[in-house]
TrEMBL record:
InterPro entries: Fungal_SecMetab_SDRs, NAD(P)-bd_dom_sf, SDR_fam. This is NAD(P)-dependent dehydrogenase (Short-subunit alcohol dehydrogenase family). It comes from the Bacteria. It holds the Pfam family adh_short. Gene3D superfamilies: NAD(P)-binding Rossmann-like Domain.
Length: 246
């Protein structure tokens, strides 16, 4: 039986995905800096190091080699990367910009580190597995606000830009992937508005029915993964599987 790898598994959506697949009786490889707050005999936990986006992935080659060995042992066929960041509370409050004047090097740096550099670092580190595993499906969580053609409201400069760059990176990597693994699919995936700490400050005035529970989101995303095929590689997909414009 194949298994699922969830990168950033301690996030709200990542944890919900883990629980969803475990309920289906599938093996789940949990990769995060934080352990799961539940136990299951089919749950394999890998503790992630504090990767710095400024480092070359080669500096962490032993870690990625170990992860790849685990993926091979469990015959992982689906990978979700759930790493992402939007805001920070506390004394050093960081929020998406409503205007250009609110942009800062600190906000820009952290937004790109967690929404672009770390996802890219993981894709690069796992590339030997991605390029050689038949029928592999790699779903990188992104955001619809990263779509340039869909941007009609403005604002959120750093977050929009980081997600747009991530979508471009996944698209470009998918072209390279086709040369070595024509059966694989590598896509960006918009999870929709989910009730989580990430979306909590921005849930006011949402249209009725737009906000979903983490369990609902996990079910939708798992369905997209189940139906994903190699011809869709490189696309930006919505939570319901529909194609979104870049």
């Amino acid at each position: 039986m194949s298994a699922v790898l969830i990168i950033g598994a301690s996030s709200a959506i990542g944890s919900a995905l883990a629980k969803h697949y475990l309920q289906l009786g599938e093996q789940v490889v949990w990769l995060s800096r934080f352990a799961a707050d539940f136990t299951d005999p089919k749950l394999c936990i890998i503790k992630a190091p504090d990767l710095n986006g400024q480092d070359e992935w080669a500096l962490h080659q032993d870690f990625f080699s170990s992860v790849i060995n685990t993926l091979q042992q469990h015959q992982v066929s689906v990978i979700f990367n759930c790493i992402g960041w939007l805001h920070q509370g506390g004394e050093l409050k960081l929020l998406p910009e409503k205007s250009l004047s609110q942009s800062s090097a600190l906000l820009l740096g952290k937004t790109f580190l967690l929404n672009l550099e770390l996802p890219v670092l993981y894709l690069q580190g796992l590339w030997p597995y991605v390029t050689t595993t038949p029928q592999l499906r790699y779903l990188q969580l992104s955001a619809k606000v990263g779509s340039i053609s869909d941007n009609q409201l403005g604002g959120w400069y750093s977050y929009r830009s980081a997600k747009a760059a991530l979508n471009q990176w996944i698209k470009t990597a998918s072209i390279e992937l086709k040369r070595s693994n024509k059966t694989a699919a590598l896509v960006s995936l918009h999870p929709g508005t989910t009730d989580s700490l990430l979306s909590a400050p921005f849930q006011r005035n949402l249209p009725q029915g737009q906000l979903r529970t983490t369990a609902q989101t996990a079910g939708y995303l798992a369905a997209v993964a189940q139906q994903l095929h190699s011809e869709q590689s490189g696309l930006l997909l919505n939570w319901d599987g529909k194609v979104l414009s870049f």
